[in-house]
Design brief:
CATH topology of the largest domain: Rossmann fold
CATH superfamily of the largest domain: Response regulator
CATH architecture of the largest domain: 3-Layer(aba) Sandwich
Distance between the termini: 76 Å
Strand order of the largest sheet: 2-1-3-4-5
Radius of gyration: 26 Å
Number of helices: 14
CATH class of the largest domain: Alpha Beta
Length: about 350
């Protein structure tokens, strides 16, 4: 038949049945007799017909049975970051139960980010935490498909699944900064520019990532209650949630004049980097340096880190339910896990 696509009409003609019968063979086989079905399948095999075009079938039924997951990271991040893996697993759990697929849509700040969203063949969107000014938010909203944002920001007409980041940071910061004189924070990025820098007492209102902003606000409250001025708190901003980068910035802090005696990290991966830097610098934890993390990942237990426990898998599942239009709790739970890396 050459390279030309075989049509269902050709299959029906060879089988000696109507086009509707041939179509029912693939789409509603219970409405076709075994004899007619055998004729259609034999004709299809002879002509090399692979079956109806999946995209055309999706258009007819108005559904792709696929959820799109928008991640403001390179695609490899979805498979390398433990918490991203856990979050995606929660989505996959729900998709498997409902017979849905999942498409990961990496967003990198390139010019084709918005067209990639608007042309995505998905029934709904789940947006991994992003910034207030991310143009993909308006693009997702404009599709008028069900959508949910994980972590923030809050967008009108879109669902939001998150924890109370400010309250959690306040609680874990109180443990990190207890009896400290020179506290520091290892932070997530402040904006989509993802600039690595070290600053004193960030102007929190200018931070464009809501998760980062809320956690910094919680840490600021904890510092204030510990009698520490916010402008005296060093904030080492990392471009990525990466243990190696956190270790580098923590090493710089610990070898500086007046090194910190407490570091609150925004993830357990970052906290692990801080612990490695402290060990290399000969600092005892928690006597010389108190350290806290976030997520209660496996590495937190191995390093005996005080941390904030949350289930990214449960949050991923909640996002999937919301994107499918199913009722779900949009305020996720968290708890404080006290271990030996802090003085209290």
């Amino acid at each position: 038949m050459g390279s030309k696509r075989v049509t269902l009409a050709q299959v029906a003609e060879l089988a000696g049945v109507s086009v509707m019968t041939a179509s029912y063979t693939y789409n509603r086989p219970d409405r076709v007799s075994d004899q007619a079905k055998s004729k259609v399948l034999a004709a299809a095999a002879h002509l090399g017909y692979a079956g109806p075009d999946p995209s055309a079938r999706s258009l007819r039924r108005g559904s792709t049975r696929t959820l799109g997951v928008v991640m403001g990271e390179h695609l490899s991040y979805a498979f390398e970051d433990p918490e991203a893996v856990s979050f995606l697993a929660g989505i996959a759990d729900v998709c498997a139960e409902r017979g849905y697929g999942m498409t990961i849509l990496p967003i990198t700040g390139a010019a084709d980010d918005v067209p990639r969203i608007t042309s995505a063949a998905v029934d709904g969107f789940i947006v991994w935490t992003t910034s207030d000014d991310d143009p993909v938010l308006a693009a997702v909203r404009a599709t008028k498909r069900p959508a949910v944002i994980h972590g923030g920001p809050s967008v009108r007409d879109l669902a939001l699944v998150t924890i109370d980041n400010r309250a959690a940071a306040h609680a874990v910061g109180a443990l990190a900064f207890a009896n400290a004189a020179r506290p520091a924070i290892v932070s997530f990025p402040l904006s989509r520019a993802r600039v690595s820098t070290t600053i004193s007492g960030a102007d929190i209102e200018d931070v464009l990532f809501p998760v980062t902003r809320e956690r910094l606000e919680g840490y600021r409250q904890a510092a204030h209650e510990a009698g520490i001025a916010w402008h005296d708190v060093l904030i080492a901003v990392c471009a990525r949630n990466d243990a190696a980068e956190a270790e580098r910035v923590a090493s710089a802090l610990l070898t500086s004049t007046g090194p910190p005696d407490a570091i609150a990290a925004m993830s357990d991966q970052q906290a692990a980097g801080v612990v490695h830097a402290a060990r290399s610098a000969g600092r005892a934890i928690p006597d010389d340096l108190a350290v806290t993390g976030w997520d209660d990942a496996a590495v937190a237990a191995r390093l005996d880190l005080t941390t904030v426990a949350q289930s990214l898998r449960e949050q991923g599942a909640a996002c999937a339910h919301a994107a499918l239009g199913e009722p779900t709790s949009q305020t996720a739970s968290w708890s404080l896990v006290r271990r030996s890396s802090t003085r209290l």
